[in-house]
Amino acid sequence: MTIRPILIHPDPRLKKACAPIASIDDELKKLADDMLSTMYDAPGIGLAAPQVGILQRLIVLDCDKDEGVEPDPIVMFNPEIIQESDSRSTYDEGCLSIPDQYAEVERPAEVAVRWMDRDGAIREAEFDGLWATCVQHEIDHLNGVLFIDHLKPLKRQMITRKMQKLKRELARG
């Protein structure tokens, strides 16, 4: 499995809606494995294909971060939210494409999601807590939406300027 470079905001690929996946082949399964390796290496709890420059509807997540807990990753092809609760929750969100920046984002507290698994089977599950926040955050990526897009314009611009500065510093080496 390969650790892939993670795109840093602002990058135009992070703002594009991704194409649905018609069928799952070995190349897509390898991409999913690479994304899991990249996510764990970062370390993070979720990663969407556009974050590694692939504009397809694929996300990976694993929100069990307790010491000694075995990894329990979920790979979702074409995930979609099919139901969301009226109740809301707020989490201090971050993003591997927006390193070291965090902000409170309010989202539905619970969601039901339908997706295709690695074998092409259609799955559905309900998520709450951190899992619900994470799956919504990653599905947003597939639609070209970043967590900072949920913030007030001034806060969003401030974070974007920090990322532009970081990218300039990284480019200088």
The CATH fourth-level homologous superfamily: Peptide deformylase
SSE order: HEEEEEEEHH
Architecture (CATH level 2) name: Alpha-Beta Complex
Cα gyration radius (Å): 16 Å
Number of domains: 1
Distance N to C terminus? 26 Å
CATH topology: Peptide Deformylase
Structure in words:
There is one protein chain. The protein has 173 residues and is an alpha+beta fold. The protein has a single domain, classed as Peptide Deformylase (Alpha-Beta Complex). It is built from 3 helices and 7 strands; from the N terminus they run αβββββββαα. The strands form 2 sheets. Strands 1-2-3-6-7 form a 5-stranded antiparallel sheet, with helices on both faces. The chain has a two-stranded antiparallel sheet with strand order 4-5. A hairpin with a 5-residue loop joins strand 6 and strand 7. It is globular, with a radius of gyration of 16 Å. The protein starts with 25 loop residues before the first helix and ends with a helix. 31% of the residues are buried. The mean pLDDT is 96.
Tell me the layout of helices and strands.
Blueprint: H1 26-41, E1 46-48, E2 58-61, E3 74-84, E4 88-95, E5 98-108, E6 110-116, E7 122-128, H2 129-142, H3 153-172
Antiparallel strand pairs: 1-2, 2-3, 3-6, 4-5, 6-7
